[in-house]
Amino acid sequence: MNSTLKPKQADNDAILVINCGSSSVKFSLIQPATGNTLLSGLAECLLTDDARIKIKIAENKDVIALASPFDHQVALDALVTTLKQQNLTDDIIAVGHRVVHGGEYYAEPTLIDENVEQTIKQLSQLAPLHNPANLIGIKACQNAFASLPQIAIFDTAFHQTMPEKAYLYGLPYHLYKEHGIRRYGFHGTSHYFVANQAAQQLNKPLADCNLISAHLGNGCSVTVIKNGKSVDTSLGMTPVEGVMMGTRSGDVDAGILIHLIERLGYSSEQLDKLINKESGLLGLSQLSNDCRTLEQAMLEDNNAQAKLALEVFCYRIAKSIASFSASLTDLDGLIFTGGIGENSDWVRNEVVKQLSLLNFALCPEKNQATRFGKSGNIAANSARNCWVIATNEEWVIAEQSNALLQQLAR
Ligand code: AMP
Q1: Ligand 1 atom closest to the CA of 338, numbered from 1
Q2: What is the model's pTM?
Q3: Where, subcellularly, is it found (predicted)?
Q4: Residue 40: partners with Cβ closer than 8 Å, 6 or more residues away
Q5: Residues within the annotated binding site?
Q6: Where in the chain do CATH 3.30.420.40 domains reside?
């Protein structure tokens, strides 16, 4: 490892945060000391003719013209060029990478060396769509920023505190011991961020808080946080389990998969596509995976199939939240986050109205007003707290990368 660890923190020190997906790279440059985002952007539709990259510096959005198709490395090279043009490279002290699957190996932010890379690669078995893409980002940044420490922040890390009773499946134990077949959970950085924000609202340490958080975006998960720690979450060994999502089915009777193989001749590829890409809101509505489109179709065009899909979606979320109350003896409140959780007052209302037994009820005006990046408590008077909190996974990655650097430099 030839990277340099900076011993002390300056206000203008910045962490470059990289979230590399199979066809996209999201990035931001964040100053941990001030919380400022100096630059952010997204390269999407990589490796296709529609590949494009947008970079926002302060308030100015810039679309960089690159001949498409281009790949992750080209996108990151364009980012480096911009950082150099803006004289920002000297302030970068590390690159923090979102890595989806850390298995049972990583419960903390981790400095990436050859062993860590190898483990992330091995864990691709558990996250075939995500970990290889994360590694592409790591390699590209090692090329672009050879002297900087590269740090991995794992989506699964926050859930490593789950007890055995929550992470084991009702399957033969040797499948867990020999093959790692257990529940891991995802969206950890998001649940951690919003739980911290809720603790601030409650004006007490996170370690004293009992919360349920619903991250509802294209991927969705519900997590129960007891004394500040994740004790159960709805996503499992892979990001398919639990509540229904944009295109993922969520929980289905495992027997259905056998039925599809034996009676309808499905191959493993077809099953994979079915439960990951063709199900959820898209599969049920037969219209779209996008919550906004479905709400519009339901409310403006009376589209019954869109309404059905949204009703199943909300009922399953409410059931998941209610079932997680079994982990707690005390509950400070419920948190909504993610693209749907932060913006859809309809979904929030539909979910919460099915949770009156837990003393949840919304104030309609506050629910309606708390959208588009606004955060706040939307509970009715005398009901249990219910917050909308805009998530910020990038900030967690920057903060935790910086904390690790400071710790290593001591
Ligand atoms: P994410 O994966 O967190 O970016 O969330 C994407 C989801 O948020 C998509 O289903 C969007 O339709 C949904 N979303 C974003 N804005 C709104 C909105 N104003 N109303 C309803 N859903 C929204």
Answers
A1: 3
A2: 0.94
A3: Cytoplasm
A4: 27, 28, 29, 55, 56, 394
A5: 19, 26, 98, 215-219, 290-292, 339-343, 393
A6: 10-154, 205-393
